[in-house]
Hints:
24% strand, Rossmann fold, 274 residues, 5-stranded mixed sheet, elongated, alpha/beta
Amino acid sequence: MDKSKDRIRIIVCxxxxxxxxxxxxxxxxNPDLDLAAGxxxxxxxILEKGMGQYIGIPDLSAPVASDLNEVIDxxxxxxxxxxxxxxxxxxxxxxxxxxxxxxxxxxxxxxxKERFKEAGRxxxxxxxxxxSIGVNVLFSIVGKVAGILGESYDPEIVExxxxxxxDAPSGxxxxxxxxxxxxxxxxxxxxxxYGRQGMVGQRKTDxxxxxxxxxxxxxxxxxxxxxxxGERIELTHRAHSRDTFAFGxxxxxxxxxxxxxxxxxMQDVLGLRx
Length: 274
C-alpha cells in the first residue's frame, strides 16, 4: 500500500524563496504531509536546478513549475508565500479547483482581501500576516493590555526586518496597529502615524506610531511600546529563525485540511480567538 496516499499533498508556491525552502523542510519532517510540487516565478534558478538541488536535498524528486496550473491536480492544498499579485492568481486557481489554501503573503490591499472573503465561501483558507505561534499570542494579548492601561499610555510599534523585505510597515505591524485601534475605539486610517519628520507638533492622545526599520539579515522583530506616566511597558517578539513561521504554516495546513469552507487565521488555528 502506498502510504503517501494517506497524507495531505501540498504544493508550495514561492518554493525558491527564503520562506519556501523552510516550509518544504517542515513538510518533509511531518508524517501527515506529502510535498506534491513547488511553484516559482519564470526565470528563477530553482526551475533549472530542480527543487532538491536548489534547497540542498539532492534526492528530493518533487517537481517544480512556473505555473500553478501545471501541477495543481497533484495536490490537496496550497501553501503560498509569494507576492500580492501572485497570491491572488493562486487564490483564483485554488477556488476553481476546490483546493484548501494557506497564505502568509503580506501586502494585500483592501480589494484583494475582499477576494479572500469571497473565496472563503467555497474553500477553506488560512490568511495570516504572521504564522509564528509567539506572534499570535502577542496578537491575542496586546488589545487586552491596551484596554487595561487606558489612554494615558501611548502606543507605538517598532518593527525590524532584513534589508531585502519589500513591503513596509510589515503585515504583522499593521495587524498589531489594527488590534490597538479596535481596543481603543479608534479608526486606524485617521490615527496611524508612519514615522515622524520635522516639526510635527506634540503627540496626540489618539496616535499610534508605526515605524519600520530595514537592516542586515534580521528575520523579524516587533515591539509594542506603551509609554505612560513615569514608566514604559514593552512587549517584544523576536524571530530567531524562519522555521517558526514554517512550522506555523504546517500547523495551519493541518487545520485547513479538516476545516470547512471559510476564511480563517492563526487565531483560529491556535484556538486563541475569543
